[in-house]
Amino acid sequence: MGQEWDAIIVGAGIVGLAAGRELARRGARILIVEQQTATSGATQASAGILAPHIEASGDDALHRLTTRSLGLYDAFVAGVEQDAGTTIEYGRRGTLELATTAGAAERLAALGGTLERAGVSAQWMDGAEAARLEPAITTPLGALFIGAHGYIRVAELTAGLLAAARAGGAELLEHRKAEAITPQDDGTVTLRIGRKTLRAPAVVIAAGSWSGLVGPAGPAVTPVRGQLLELRWTGPAITRVLWSEDCYIVPWSDGRLLVGATVEEAGFDQWNTVAGVRALLEAACRLLPAAGSATFMAARAGLRPRSADGVPFIGRAPGHPGIVYATGHYRNGVLLAPLTAALVADLVLGDGADPALALTALAR
């Protein structure tokens, strides 16, 4: 049984592909193993919102991680585009969070003040000003605009990451289930898929909601179903990501809108539901009066892996240094992809001394 790879990655969602591309870029021989098809899990139901300050709660661990990762995004996207020879739709035109109740207005105004004091540009405005910015919306009581935020078209990003990883020599095996991951006495790790046993110095487990079921000493993550709708919009142009208490709306340059997302603990059930689709449609119509005339294009659902404290697990398995976990990203997998990829590559190829790893350690 030979050793053909420097690392094997289990999972070909946004996290696994970002890690694979970064490791390949640094010269490592990489194999990515996926039990379904690449990007078929939570990634395909992601709206690609890049907004660390929407739910900011001060200087907590998650906010520090997401803010740092957003700062990497311009160079990250440019690098993927160059490596893959492609173009990825990516915009940083900000988010406009709308207050439709007095309580929401009070919360958002306070959040704006907190962010401004922290050096983040955030503008609280009245409803009339918000409606001038985005004529398609229902006039709110007020709105908070955060200009640093944005979005990325996830399918284009993941396709680019896969192409970039392959350009760096990475291989992908789809429809192969990781059945056993076993640390060996010589410090390597074996992975059994069907009748084959593979060996590498490191195995990275980035299997989303299934990560805790795949390898030894796996972290506890809870699958949380999120449903997402795709609409074709013919109303006034929407230029910013919109957010309310009930939904968010992400506008694409071709006129399509993404509407999301539900938050449901439904075990490993990945299906869309009538109730979920109806709730999102009704929320979209409250935010955009003309949404009822939009064309319904698709509904998707994915299982987002949530840790107990909301912070992802990125680190070595206790007692098994050759096994690295990258999971528990919940609603921030796309936003955290650049930072996660760098941290995973440091763990696999370097000393893993980045201070962020203290925040994401499995034994924190």
Shape: globular
Counted by DSSP, the helix tally is 10
Distance between the termini: 36 Å
Succession of helices and strands: EHEEHHEEHEHEEHEEEEEHEEEEHEEEHH
- Kindly state the number of beta strands: 20
User: What portion of residues belong to β-strands?
Assistant: 25-35%
Q: Biggest β-sheet, characterized?
A: 8 strands, mixed
Helix content: 25-40%
* Biggest sheet: strand arrangement: 6-7-5-15-16-17-14-18
Structural class: alpha+beta
Which whole number gives the mean pLDDT? 95
As a whole number of angstroms, the C-alpha radius of gyration is: 21 Å
Unreliable stretches covering 5 or more consecutive residues: none
Keywords:
364 residues, alpha+beta, eight-stranded mixed sheet, six-stranded mixed sheet, 20 strands, 30% helix
How would you portray this structure in words?
It is a single chain. The chain is α+β, with helices and mostly antiparallel strands and 364 residues long. The chain is 30% helix and 27% strand. The mean pLDDT is 95.
Give a brief outline of the structure:
By secondary structure, the chain is α+β, with helices and mostly antiparallel strands.
Task: Chart the SSEs and their pairings.
Elements: E1 7-10, H1 14-25, E2 30-33, E3 49-50, H2 61-71, H3 73-84, E4 90-91, E5 95-99, H4 102-117, E6 122-126, H5 127-133, E7 142-146, E8 150-152, H6 154-167, E9 171-173, E10 180-183, E11 189-193, E12 196-200, E13 202-205, H7 211-214, E14 222-232, E15 241-243, E16 248-251, E17 256-260, H8 274-287, E18 295-306, E19 313-317, E20 320-327, H9 337-349, H10 356-360
Parallel strand pairs: 1-2, 1-13, 2-9, 5-15, 13-20
Antiparallel strand pairs: 3-8, 4-8, 5-7, 6-7, 10-11, 11-12, 14-17, 14-18, 15-16, 16-17, 19-20
Helix pairs in contact: 1-6, 1-9, 2-9, 3-6
